[in-house]
């Protein structure tokens, strides 16, 4: 049996501050009814001033290490869209905050698909023998790039972090990452974009407009692409794993919108109940979304050892991906 990356620990955290739909409706032209019916979101969490992505990442990482029963790893991969600074990467700060020593630590940027890209990168390090144990974190202070007055985005996004420990093992181990699919299409880069703050707008000499540091999203087009790509990517990993779609116990999709999750389940001929949903309480937390969902599902006892799980995501870039695994017997704390 080949060397494989096996999920052996999980943890997550969300900031304390709750933002309800009614709080948003008090500020902009929207309503609790509209947000619930179009997205499934009831509330989301927001970081307070002074809390950065690395603070959330350290807490989620600490919990994942505890769940795995380990104090050290050989590498740290952080998926984020909202690094503490444009330079340097945030992962070394997280490794330092966790007291992990001078291990390799780097960021992966694939927006809402970032965690799956980071998992695949970590699994590559393990397969090559470069690392025996890797901490993979998805963390976002996403509300820091959201225009608080933009009703197209403010109701959707929230903050949080999730992390997993991947350990070298065998393909036959429960928790082994079994198949991967990743993709990207830069022709769709404009669907989700923060116009200013990078080299493009800086070097062109264009003065940023008042909201150019905030994310803009073409919601309807994102919706259609998300359903199609997440469905196709899920089908690809199911085929590679040799699983019949109907045998899947849990579809843990990127928590963008409950309608997207149900549409993907529907396309895969899975009953809607097998699509795990926690977007109602945390909103779309981008790169943190999948590990947060997994940890919520595990702590609620909804994921049982041996369950067949498909992870899938779509995000800015455009990027997408999917991974299959059988849920391991681990401590969700
Ligand atoms: N409150 C009230 N009305 C709103 C609104 C809000 N917050 N946002 C938009 N509307 C209005 C629109 O102006 C439009 O009005 P019109 O028909 O008079 O023009 C109407 O609601 C429908 O807008 P539309 O954009 O077509 O709604 P939708 O059903 O596509 O839902 C999203 C919008 C953003 C919720 C949905 O497209 C979505 O979830 N997209 C994916 C977003 C995502 O998850 N992105 C992250 C990366 S995966």
From TrEMBL:
Catalyzed chemical reaction(s): (2S)-2-methylbutanoyl-CoA + malonyl-[ACP] + H(+) = (4S)-4-methyl-3-oxohexanoyl-[ACP] + CO2 + CoA; 3-methylbutanoyl-CoA + malonyl-[ACP] + H(+) = 5-methyl-3-oxohexanoyl-[ACP] + CO2 + CoA; malonyl-[ACP] + acetyl-CoA + H(+) = 3-oxobutanoyl-[ACP] + CO2 + CoA; 2-methylpropanoyl-CoA + malonyl-[ACP] + H(+) = 4-methyl-3-oxopentanoyl-[ACP] + CO2 + CoA
Location of the Beta-ketoacyl-[acyl-carrier-protein] synthase III N-terminal domain: 106-186
Region described as ACP-binding: 255-259
Biological processes annotated in GO: fatty acid biosynthetic process; secondary metabolite biosynthetic process
Gene Ontology terms: cellular component: cytoplasm
E.C. no: 2.3.1.180
Keywords: Acyltransferase, Cytoplasm, Fatty acid biosynthesis, Fatty acid metabolism, Lipid biosynthesis, Lipid metabolism, Multifunctional enzyme, Transferase
GO molecular function: 3-oxoacyl-[acyl-carrier-protein] synthase activity; beta-ketoacyl-acyl-carrier-protein synthase III activity
Residue span, Beta-ketoacyl-[acyl-carrier-protein] synthase III C-terminal domain: 238-327
HAMAP family: FabH (MF_01815)
NCBIfam families: fabH (TIGR00747), PRK09352.1 (NF006829)
Record text about domains: The last Arg residue of the ACP-binding site is essential for the weak association between ACP/AcpP and FabH.
Protein name listed in UniProt: Beta-ketoacyl-[acyl-carrier-protein] synthase III
Organism annotation: Actinokineospora spheciospongiae
């Amino acid at each position: 049996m080949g060397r494989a990356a096996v999920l052996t620990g999980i943890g997550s955290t969300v900031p304390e501050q709750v933002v309800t739909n009614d709080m948003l409706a008090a500020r902009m032209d929207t309503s609790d009814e509209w947000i619930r019916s179009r997205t499934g979101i009831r509330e989301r969490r927001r970081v307070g001033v002074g809390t950065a992505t690395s603070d959330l990442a350290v807490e989620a990482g600490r919990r994942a290490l505890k769940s795995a029963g380990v104090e050290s790893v050989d590498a740290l991969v952080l998926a984020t869209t909202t690094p503490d600074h444009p330079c340097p990467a945030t992962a070394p700060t997280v490794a330092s905050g966790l007291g992990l020593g001078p291990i390799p630590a780097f960021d992966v940027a694939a927006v809402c698909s970032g965690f799956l890209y980071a998992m695949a990168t970590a699994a590559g390090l393990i397969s090559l023998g470069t690392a025996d144990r890797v901490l993979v974190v998805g963390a976002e202070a996403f509300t820091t790039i959201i225009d608080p007055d933009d009703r197209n985005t403010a109701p959707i996004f929230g903050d949080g972090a999730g992390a997993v420990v991947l350990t070298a093992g065998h393909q036959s181990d429960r928790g082994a990452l079994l198949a991967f699919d990743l993709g990207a299409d830069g022709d769709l880069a404009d669907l989700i974009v923060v116009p200013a703050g990078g080299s493009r707008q800086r070097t062109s000499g264009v003065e940023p407009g008042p909201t150019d540091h905030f994310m803009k999203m073409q919601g309807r087009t994102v919706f259609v692409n998300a359903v199609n790509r997440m469905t196709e990517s899920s089908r690809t990993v199911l085929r590679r794993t040799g699983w019949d779609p109907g045998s899947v116990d849990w579809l843990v999709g990127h928590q963008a919108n409950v309608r997207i999750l149900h549409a993907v389940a529907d396309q895969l001929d899975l009953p809607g109940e097998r699509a795990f949903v926690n977007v109602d309480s945390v909103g779309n937390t981008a790169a943190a979304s999948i590990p947060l969902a997994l940890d919520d599902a595990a702590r609620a006892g909804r994921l049982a050892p041996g369950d067949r799980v498909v992870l899938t995501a779509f995000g800015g870039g455009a990027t997408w991906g999917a991974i299959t695994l059988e849920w391991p017997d681990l401590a969700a704390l």
